[in-house]
Amino acid sequence: MELSTVSSNLLYAAFIIYLVATFFFGGTIRDKNRKKTGVAGKIGITLTIVGFLTQVGYFITRWLASGHAPVSNLFEFTTFFGMMLVLAFIVMYFIYRINVLGLFALPIALLIIAFASMFPSEISPLVPSLQSHWLYIHVTTASLGQAVLSVSFVAGLIFLIRQIDQGEKSKHTFWLEFVIYMLATALAFIIISSSFNAMNYQVTFEAPIQEQPTEITYQMPAIAGPTDGELITEGMSPLFEVPQWMRGQDAAIKFNTMIWSFLGGIVLYWLARLILRKRIGAAVQPLLKKANPELVDEISYRAVAIGFPIFTLGALIFAMIWAQQAWDRFWGWDPKEVWALITFFFYAAYLHLRLSRGWQGMKSAWLAVGGFAIIMFNLLAVNLIISGLHSYA
Amino acid sequence: MKEKTVQKKKKRLVFRTILLAVMAGLVVFALVSNFNSDKAVVAEGEPAPDFQLEKFGSDGETIALSDLEGKGVMLNFWATYCEPCKKEMPYMEKLYSEYKKKGVEILAINLDSTNLVVEQFLDRYGISFPILQDENGQVMNRYNVGPIPSTFFISPEGKVVKHVVGPLTLEKLDGYLQQITPEA
Amino acid sequence: MNNITCECGHVNPEGTVLCESCGKPIQGNQHIDGNDSQTLLNMRYDGSARRSQTYNRTFVDKIWNFFSSVKVGVWLIVLTLVASAVGTIFPQEMYIPPNVDAATHYEDQYGLAGQIYYQLGFHNLFSSWWYMLLLAMIGISIVIASIDRFVPLYKTLRTQKPKRHDLFLKKQRVFGKTESSSVDIDQVRKNLKKSRYKVKEQDGHILAEKNRFARWGPYVNHIGLIIFLLGTLLRFIPALYVDDFVWVREGETAVINGTEGQYYIKNKEFILETYDEDDERFQEALQNQGGLVPKTYQTNAVVYKRTDPVVVGGDPELEKIKEDQIKVNHPLKFGGFALYQASYQLNEFKEMTFKIHDKNNEDSSYGQFTVDLSEPKSEYQLDSGYRVVLDSYYPEYELKDGKPVSVSKYPKNPAFVFNVYPPGQSEPEVSFVGIGANVDATGENDYKIGLINFDVRDVTGLTVRKDYTLPFIALGGAIFMIGVIQGMYWNHRRIWIKPKENGVWIAGHTNKNWFALRREIDKVISETGIEAPNDQQEMKN
């Protein structure tokens, strides 16, 4: 078997193992004893480690196959981020021994890895500016930092679900539902993309791009077609055209995918809500009765305390060293850099608010959610929407 | 005790004042430097930087801006491959002799890299004002010239009176030249 | 100054919240840290007298206190964060294509929003005065807030005594009373030492402390940030920073801009490699990207230093100082300068050789001549007696409104108008010759000028950079990292044990990571007879 095939099989296996581990962590909910880890938890963490090692296997084999560290495009980077999230979870687990963290961290890692596989996954060559040891030094450290910071979000989310008063509608319940809806949207994107992929759905338009007639191929039915586009293959004709200012070859495709995802998210969310007959947060809350909010709050904070220095080192300092070498300036205000700086500012504000102004518990948990939103924005939106020098990555 | 307290207070005030002043100074330094580096071109109202360039087709005769003190100077950056430059050249030629008598010199700084094209151009257009060669683009850099044509009108006192990017019409050219004509 | 004498005898400076020595809450100052409304003590800065909270008399004090506030600092951070995000909505001016007018570019590309963005100056947001002012204010805030907190905190932690006031212990988050006569203090001491605590004793009162240095982490990292910011300021000093650019053609030696004529560079060869489309590893990706993917940009360069005094004109005497390959990610360094592979031009024409032949017979020849495109001559005299006058030369030829023009000075697509004078004739034949174009002006020519050979060369574009501010930037970054790690990966922990008539009181404090502190206290009190203290701040369900 070819190395690259071995590699993708290992990734697939890791995904399945994480999924199974999640169910075992789910099984710990019913554990009576709060202090001791039950059998389910032990199996859960063991499987997680096995899954992690499997994914490390994917990483190494892919490295061998391509000749460079597989962190050079969106698929590879996002997958790696998922792997680092699992690693960060494992580390936190052994510090605090709390099963419920796994029940939330693993699904988020799964979501991220599945999300990654929606991007083109073939092995691509390195352009000259990426040919440097700093590629993996910078990317791995930055990614690990972001992953540890994401554990803060996971703990924050647990805290919010556990602590928000579900007795009445409030700003808190609304925004918690919103966070859950966003997760549903990510899930919907994965389901919809892979379904249409499996069906091999394609529809092509011809539309003017910079005054050149260009063929634009959608991988899902076009709800929003390109401006002045003409359908040239069989398929559903679009319900409307994207506004004029959405230029660029892929702008219309991306916008269409977004519409699909948000609609899909709405369907998933309301389906769940109809089945449960209450807010999702309210439905999950009783499962978390055993979680100690003090401890969860501390985990959320500790993750920031551990992740912030790693993130700064990887995403700012190593980034500057590399940029100085590759682009003759250590800082150039390109969007990816700016968003790394924004992440830095955000967590700096978090730490000051927590240490000097006593923002703990609820406030701190909401900040953790905000931080994760920024990290995700930097990971995906900056690459897909606002592209800068990092657009190949 | 009382005296000590007063002294301590005083010391504190002095310390705070000095530190704040130093930091304010640094901020001002940063803002001013940044403002100056932002100014992409030699600004109007400021002295025009001096330079010395070889006159085209002259076997080493050079002209320096400082040689022309007391005269108004029109500095025009151009190249043969620049279409709008070609348009304003005849206007300059037309007004040149008139203003030369009044004490205004026109210097056209050429940015081409081969002599031949310039020679051919000058022959074709019958240009009589001096053409200077800035092959390394040093003067262009010093004046931070971006798109051409780019024209500086320099007063007899050596100050930039007006900077125009893009081609000039005959009337505008006439007007600006009048502005830099020395008083008789 | 109204110093406050505590009942333990210690004299505290004005504004102290908790006695520096025994920790007793000082009456009348509890509002400063909000202790009056809480059951637990606010232990931030250990209740030391932060100056900003006390003196507020003159104008200078008011400014000082403004910047000393953490609240102000956080607001500055948040404002900078939002401003930075705004700066990424549309590309900054430095990232739009060169040679386009910014005003029209933003409107064309992004419509009304783009126009507004441009008019508000957001296209140069990061070099705007107000953005720099925000960063500068963060810097000022860092300096003042750190001084205001570090000094009193340092003093307090130095003067603290093991003997603590009852109220201080009672109001700690981790606190417990043990009523028993069989407390084994020796075992406590042993346990504390085992957990690497520094133990201080005073009349049987115990203060166990570890990792106090972690408290200095924030101040260390702030020093790092200040050095970093000062380093970026140094860039404005011209002697410390050079940013220039040089184009060098293959085979040519050029003076390196920005070095004041001191250094020259020879471009021996420029190499552009692309990935092999048959490479099995990348085949799929290369096909999907539908084009050539570059693999290497490289200039084989030699750097020379000028040995004679720099005089305008005259040939320089050069001494070779370095020969190396310049690649992306691999700059060439010499004498404080670095050359970066930044740009290139492929296939500029260097020489073109033509021959005159019969219009209808390409094999005939009436002699040939070579045009050097960096210095074309106006006339070429051929051995065969033919004379060719170069009437017009267009380095980068284009047809505009039916007329040939050149759009640049670079010989990328050269074209010529040749006047051919056969021997003895005074009337020329006019031909227009370019790449893939050969036009007979009158249609009645007997001769034709054919291109028989040409030489192309590449041009490399290198950034010239001298940056003596880098050591400061690096130092700042390093100190920042040390400070952050020091503050984040270690925790300052203290355990107080106070002997009582019947048993002991125990209290613990840490600046963070309470879970670990409680585990550690559990270890410390094991087999000593002390009961596990409570966390008085358990959250309500």
Describe the structure.
The complex is a heterotrimer of chains A (393), B (184) and C (541). Chain A has 393 residues and is mainly α. Chain A has 2 domains: 3-166 and 278-392, no CATH class; 169-277, no CATH class. Helix content of chain A is 68%, strand content 5%. The mean pLDDT of chain A is 88. With 184 residues, chain B is α/β, with parallel strands linked by helices. Chain B has a 7-stranded mixed beta sheet, with helices on one face. The radius of gyration of chain B is 24 Å and the shape is elongated. Chain B folds into 2 domains: 1-38; 52-179, Glutaredoxin. With 541 residues, chain C is an alpha+beta fold. Chain C has helices spanning 51-54, 59-68, 70-86, 102-119, 129-159, 166-170, 185-194, 217-234, 283-289, 470-488, 514-524, and strands at residues 4-5, 11-12, 174-178, 198-202, 205-210, 241-249, 253-255, 263-274, 294-306, 318-327, 332-334, 337-358, 368-372, 379-381, 387-394, 397-400, 403-406, 415-421, 429-434, 437-440, 447-467, 493-500, 503-510, 534-535. In chain C, the strands form 6 sheets. Chain C has a 6-stranded antiparallel beta sheet, covered by helices on one side. In chain C, strand 1 (4-5) and strand 2 (11-12) form a beta hairpin. In chain C, helix 5 runs antiparallel to helix 8. The mean pLDDT of chain C is 86. At the A-C interface, helix 9 and helix 10 of A face helix 3, helix 4, helix 9, strand 9 and strand 12 of C.
How many DSSP-defined strands of chain C?
24
Low-confidence stretches of chain C: none
What structural class results from the helix and strand content of chain C? alpha+beta
Radius of gyration of chain A: 22 Å
Number of strands of chain A: 5
* pLDDT averaged over residues of chain A: 88
Q: Going across the major beta sheet of chain A, what is the strand order?
A: 2-1-4
Cα distance spanning the termini of chain C: 46 Å
How many structural domains of chain C?
4
How far apart the termini of chain A lie comes to: 28 Å
Quaternary structure: heterotrimer
Order of helices and strands of chain A: HHHHHHEEEEEHHHHH
Biggest sheet: strand arrangement of chain C: 4-5-22-23-3-24
Tell me, briefly, the overall form of chain A.
globular
Annotation field: number of helices of chain A:
11
Low-pLDDT runs of 5+ residues of chain A are none
The largest sheet of chain A, given as strand count, sense and whether it forms a barrel, is:
3 strands, antiparallel
Percent in helix of chain A: 55-70%
Largest sheet of chain C: 6 strands, antiparallel
